[in-house]
Structure formats: structure tokens, C-alpha cells
Amino acid sequence: MKIIDSFLNKITMYRLTLYYLIALLVWAFILSFLGILHVNPLDIIIDTGLALFTCIVGNYILSKFFGAVTNIESAIITALILTLIIPLKFPVNATFFIAASVFAIGSKYFVTVDRRHVFNPAAAGVLALSLLSPEHTATWWVGTPSMLPVVLIGGLLLVRKIQRETLAFTFLLSYAVLLAAAAFLHAGTLSAILTSWKLSILNSAVFFFTFVMLTEPLTSPTTKKRREVYAYITALFYATPQLRLFNFAFTPEMALIIGNIYSFIVSPKFRLVLPLSWKKEIGSNTVVFGFEAPKSFTFNPGQYMEWTLPHTHVDNRGNRRYFSLANSPSEKELMLMIKFYDPSSSFKKALLSMQEGQEIVATHVAGDFVLPKDPTIPLVFIAGGVGMAPFRSMIQHIIDNKLTYNITVIYSNRAADEIAFADLLSQAEKFGIKTLYTLTDKKNIPQNWTGEIGYITEEMIEKYIPDYAQRTFYLSGPQLMVEAYEDLLAKLNIKKSQIIKDYFPGY
Fold it and tell me: Residue 403 sits in a domain of what CATH number?
């Protein structure tokens, strides 16, 4: 898994989704060329091109009309999803592709709240067209046995990347239980249940629906518990053809739209255009950015947002990122703590070159990496480098509100000049927060260094935190480092339920 995670850590969520969908269409073309998939290879090429052209041009026109910051990858992804679920038959279905693409892209601009789309664009486009013209329905042809291997491999990589395994598993398990119940009620035999499961796995698009559309971060709830409810609701309506609870069966796109409505109700949608107020280098190649925020904006300390920065010469990592907020909710500016490497991505180069007054777009506050409601629970914060950002948010919040917690911070950096917020951590001591520093570059240790030297070890935790077995551990930093901390804590017999990890998709 470490090899897989290392690969996933180098690619954004949007780019991985794009490659996954392209792989599915290439695989479909190969199968159709060999006569295994009953689709005309030429239809795949023409209809894909038609959807791409309509979505890209439509997105460009609408983004200019509304003055919106957009991501071309998003339009391409929508086009490829439409290609994989709409019947391929050119020129018979040319109108279907064009109209569905127009409705899909249009939903991102017209069916919005504070300029944030509410529904999954592909599902909204197909559903809108089917309601206006019932003869136009999606067949979800991607759900065939020959397509299943690529659907599964790419889909599992995608949910691993965006850390939506629980959402996907909850939906699939709920759907399987509903299928079993329906089969048993109608036939009363085990073979009927097994047959129902087999048909749903081999001859339906349930996995594609789950991995690609259900888990989309922008239209799914922002916290784990709400995502579970979202999975239950969507599974119930997705299974209506088998349950026969209603006078008509809901299509997959209908089920998803209903789930999106629940998500909208419990997860507020907004779009902030934030001017840069200041930026300051606080450590070696580490810069904190302060963006002016509206007074009405609220979040929980430790959460993250999606940030979009338009710039020229966008590289293959795109113009969007997910970053944790480093500020307390009581502070005037939203703060980002960014580490810059050489070479940096085009996004980070553009971010570093921003001048006061230049704007960035922030949306979608999310995450469960927040302080427990009970301040008496003893905690350990383990941070590496810029992994200190969400902890800085939490600690400043504690100080601002004069709260008392029992927290030990273990802060690991390569060198002393990379340590950030030392003054804040010192100030936090009177609020029950103590900090242990450790440096990993043993060749460059300052002469007056009083902290630890080397990587965090079991012995280090046992030495400084005697009651570690009773504590809840918060881990923040690069994904591979967080996984190494998890392995370390497992050796100390720390339960998984005692570990909370900072994660945001698409970094």
C-alpha cells in the first residue's frame, strides 16, 4: 500500500479521476474493437468528442458570462462520465449527448447556491433531459462484466485517494442488504439472493456509480457521520427497482440527486473570493498567507477548504488544492501555511507570487479533524512540518477562548529553522498544552538545542507521555509520514479508535 499511496500522493484528485475515466474509455474501445463489447468503436470516438466539445465550450462561455474561476478538468470529467452512461449510437444519439452536456454544464452555473453547484453535473444533465424527453434515458453501459476489472481497479484507487472508503463501503453494503431483503421477500430462497447479487455486480454500474459519482467531494457531505446517512439514503433510492416500494423505479441519477439534496441541506455551499492581505515567511521555505475573510464565515478549528487559483501555464497538477486552515475562527484572516519545494508546482509558484489585493477562491469547508467536544479527553498532537497548520488553528482557538486542555504536542522537523509558531506554542503552555520538539537532520543540530534528536520513536512517546495508552492521538503531515506514525502507534497497542488523521483530498 505504501507504493500505491506514494503514487497517489503525487497526483491530484481531479487528475486521477480524469486518467481513470480515460482508461475506461480506452478499455471500452479495445473491447469493442475485439468484438467483446457490443459497442461500435467509432461511436466511442465520435460521441466522446461530441461530449468533450460541448462541455468544454459550454463551460468556457458560461464561466466568462458569470465571471467564474473554472477548472477545465472538471468540464472534461463531466463529458467523459456522460460518455460512459449515455447510449453510444451516432448520429442517432447526437442530440442526447449535446443536450445532456448543455444541461450538465448549465447546472454548475444556474442550479447553484452562492455560485456553488448543488448537484452532480452529469447526473443533473441526464435527469433534466429525461424529464423533458422521457425517451432519452441513460443506460449506464459502463456496467458490463467486461468493463468491471478496470472499473474496480481505478475506482478503488480513487476512493483511496480521496479517503472515501467508508462512504463507498457503507453504500455498497446497504445496497447489498436491500437487494437481499427484496430477493428474499419476493422468492424466499438463498439462490434468489445470490442471483440478485450476481446480476448487480456483473451487469450493473453500481461500482462506477459508487466510486465516481457518489463520492464526489463537492456534492457529498463534509463530515463522516453525515456521509454515512447520505450513503443510506442514496442506497435506498438506488435499490427501488428491486424493492418495488414505489409506483415507479428511481434511476441511478435520480437516486444521486436525492442524495445531493440531503447533502446540500446538511452541508452549506458557498464560494469566497478572498483578497490577499499579507504573506510572511515563518521558516525555511515555509510561508503563511493571510486572506481577508467575511465576518459571517465560520468553521471548526482543524478543518480544510478547497482553494482555486487561476494562473497561466497550469501544469498537470491543476489550479485547485485542498489546504487546512491555520487560523482560529476568531481571527480576521483565513491563513494558509505552505511549504515550497524546488521545483514547485505551477499552483504554488502562482501562490508565492501573489501580491496584496490579488484574489483566490475558497470553497467547501470540510473535515472531521477537530477538537473533541469534551475538553477533559487527554490528547497528543503529532505534526510534521506544515502538518502543524490545523494544530495551529486548534491551539489559537483554545487560547482565544481561554480554554484548558490536556495536550502534548510532538513537533517533528528536519531542521530548527523549519519550526513554525514556536511563540504560540510557548504561550499555550498555560492552557495545558506542552510541546516536545525533535529534529531529524542529525548533522545540523544547533549547539544550544534542548529538544530531542531523530525521528519520533516508541521510546520517545513512552518517555514523555507515560499515560499514552489513555490518550487520543491526532496525526497531521504528509500521508506517508502519517502512515508511519500509525505503524508506530500500533506497536504501542494504541487502538485505531484512538487515532484521528488529518486528511483532505486532492493535495
Answer: 3.40.50.80
**Angle at CA of residue 215, ends 499 and 320, nearest 5°:** 85
Is 507 within the bounds of a domain? no
Picking from 80, 82, 75, the residue whose alpha carbon sits closest to that of residue 59 is: 75
The last residue of one of the domains, among 332, 366, 400, is: 366
Q: Which residue, among 399, 505, 388, 412, has the nearest Cα to 464 in the 3D structure?
A: 412
Confidence at residue 246, expressed as pLDDT on a 0 to 100 scale: 66
> What is residue 253's three-state secondary structure?
helix
Residue 265: which of 222, 298, 303 has the closest Cα?
A: 222
Q: How far is Cα 494 from Cα 367, in angstroms, rounded to an integer?
A: 23
Q: What is the 3-state secondary structure (H, E, C) of 101-165?
A: HHHHHHHHHHCEECCEECCCHHHHHHHHHHHHCCCCCCCCCCCCHHHHHHHHHHHHHHHHHCCCH
Answer whether 99's CB lies under 8 Å from 129's CB.
Answer: yes
Give CA–CA dist 305/323, Å, rounded. 6
Same-domain check for residues 435 and 483:
yes
Same-domain status, 12 and 53: yes
C-alpha cell at 39: 459497442
Residue 503 confidence (pLDDT): 66
Whether 142 is covered by a domain: the verdict is yes
- Strand partners for 499: 473
Q: In which domain, by residue range, is 185 found?
A: 2-266
Amino acid 506: pLDDT: 44
Averages of pLDDT over runs of 10 residues in the chain (507 residues) are 79 91 98 95 96 96 86 92 95 93 94 83 96 91 95 96 94 95 87 87 90 94 93 96 79 96 87 94 92 92 93 84 94 94 89 96 91 96 92 98 97 93 96 97 93 95 96 89 91 95 62
